[in-house]
Amino acid sequence: MNLIPRDSVTDLSRFFDDFFPSSRVLSPGEKSFFAPHVDIEEDGANYVIEADLPGVKKEDIHLTLEDGVLSLEAERRVDSTEEKKGKVIRRERRFGKFTRSFAVGPGITVDDINGQFNDGVLTVVVPKQTQQAPVTRKVEIT
Fold first, then answer.
1. Are 103 and 66 in contact (CB under 8 A)?
2. Which of 129, 116, 128 has its CA nearest to residue 50?
3. What's the predicted TM-score (pTM) here?
4. Each residue of 77-132: pLDDT tens digit?
5. Contact at 8 Å (CB) between 38 and 115?
6. Smallest Cα–Cα separation from 101: which of 53, 22, 52, 35?
7. Helix-strand-coil percent breakdown of the chain, rounded to 5?
8. Is 137 helix (H, G, I), strand (E, B) or coil?
9. Sign of the CA dihedral 97, 100, 105, 111?
């Protein structure tokens, strides 16, 4: 069986990753960074965010809302039993922590947001912030 190495010319995702590197700076000793692919769709009165999180346990996923910013934090850990099976020849799967943030607006509260994790996909439903019409009032001059 022949494998095409991820760092070959035919690996387009790696080509784009190298050509347009992430703006995130790795700290010393940190070997890699990964962020899952995210789809954001508009569904009537809601935004639906779907994030692929294969291999992440539900208890390792944290959603927080602060000042109109929804943050998704998760960690994918290396299985220690995998090391005991034998010598690792190649490791392409990424492990570690990541954070993704989404501006949802200051009018959204935690009670407005729903999250569901099923088969390695996190689905978060966030209502659209309602646009309030500007109120014009006449100021009485005395």
1. no
2. 116
3. 0.64
4. 776 655 566 777 777 777 778 888 998 888 888 999 999 999 999 999 999 887 66
5. no
6. 35
7. 15, 35, 55
8. coil
9. negative
